[in-house]
Amino acid sequence: MKIRLTLVAMTLLMAQQAQATSLPQAAALANGTTAASASTAYDALENQISQATINALKGNAPSLKREQLEKTKQTDTQADRAWLKASAYDFQTKANQQAGIALLSGFSSLPDSVLKANLQTVTEINLNASQATRQKALTDAEGQNYLYFLADALGPRLGKAFLTAYDKGEIGKAAALIKASEVSTSAAKKHFNYDRPFLIKGNTIHLVPDDAVVKDNQPYTADGGSFPSGHTNAGYTDALLLAQMLPERYDALVERGARYGYSRIVLGVHYPLDIMGSRMLTQRNVANYLNDPRYQALFKEASDQLRTALEKECGTSLVECSKTDAKDDPYRSADMKQFYRFSMSYNLPKYSEKATRVSVPQGAEVLLQTALPNLSAAQRRQLMINSALPAGYPLSGSTPEQAFWQRLDLPAAFAMAKHKS
After folding, report:
1. Alpha-carbon distance 42 to 318, whole Å?
2. DSSP code of residue 207
3. Helix or strand or coil: residue 5?
4. What is the CB neighbour count within 10 angstroms for residue 420?
5. Does domain 7-418 have CATH number 3.30.70.980?
6. The pLDDT of residue 351 is above 90
7. pLDDT band (50, 70, 90) for residue 228
8. For position 355, what pLDDT does the model report?
9. How far apart are the first and last CA of the chain?
10. Could you tell me the residue ranges of all domains in the chain?
C-alpha cells in the first residue's frame, strides 16, 4: 500500500524544501530552546538541566573547578557498565571509524567557495548569538559525557521524570548502552586534519567566556582537528538512540541532536560542515548497530528498563506523560522541523546540480521502525526518499551512501507518515 499525503501536508513539505531558513531565523529558533523561551515551565526545565549538569561535574567537591571537566563521566549509579561489560558486545569501533572516513571522503574535494562559505557561516552564527544561546552552548559542551541535555526535548513533565530516573540509576542500562554506542571521531579528525575556525588566519571568531558552567569567564576553546565534530557525534548518537527508545518523542529528540550540533558553531569551535558530517556518521552507525541482532537484544533490554522507570516516575503512561502544551514544548513546534532542515546544509552553496536519485542502503529504514511500527520496511524506505534534501549540497559526494546519509531528513519523513491519508 502506497503512502499518500494530504494536500496540506504535501504543500507544507514542498514549501519547507523550497524556502530556505535564514541565519537570523535559525538563530531565533535556537534561542527559543533556551532558558530565555516564552514558557515558564520550559525555562524551569532548562535551569534544572543546567544545575544537574553542574552538580554532576562537581561531584563531591565543594565547588566546580576547570580541571575537573576533563575527568568527569557518568557515575556507576547512572550507567550500568557492569551489565554492558558482561554482555561482551563488540562495538567494532575501528571498522566503523574506517567506514566513517570513507563516508566523509567528499570533504577532501570540496571547492574553495564552499570552504569560504563554511567559515563565513560559523563566524556570523558565533558573533550574533544571544547570551542565552551561548550559555546553553556552554552547558551542552561541558555536559558531553552525560545525558542531561536530552531532557529538554522530552517536554517539562517527561523531562523532569527523565532527570530523576537518570540520577537515581533507574535507567542505567540505557545510559551505558547509549554512551558506549558513540563511535569516536578521533580517527577521522586525524585523517582530514582541518583547522578549527578560531585558528584560521584573520578570523574574527569570538571565544565565548564561561559564565554558565565553571563561571570563571575563561574563553571556551577546543583542541584537535575540526572535521568532523566529536561533540556533535556524541549528541546526535545519544538523541537518535533515545528517540528509538521513546518514539512518543521521536521527532523532538532527533531535532535535539541538530540543536546540540548548532551549539558547537555558536562557540566558534566548529564549522557547519563538521556538524553535517557528524550527522551523517551518526545515522550510519546507529542504523548499523540496530541491524545487529546481538545489539538489538541489548537495546530491547535497555529500552524496556528505561520505559518502565519513566512510567514509574511519571505515575502514568508514557503517552500521557509526553503530552505537553504547545507553548511549553519548542521541540514540538513545526518551526523546529525547519531548523532541522536548515541544519542539514546550513545554506552552504550547492556545488553540484546533478539530480541524483536517492537510494536507501539496506537496513537504513530501521531508523524509523519504532517510530512508525505499523509501516512496512518498504514504506519507511519510500518515506526517506520522498522527504530527502535536494541533491547537490556539500558532503553528498559521489556514492549512493554519501548522497543518502547527507540527504536523509528523519523528522520530515516522520511528519509525512503522520499526515498520511
Report:
1. 19
2. P
3. strand
4. 16
5. no
6. no
7. very high
8. 62
9. 12
10. 7-418
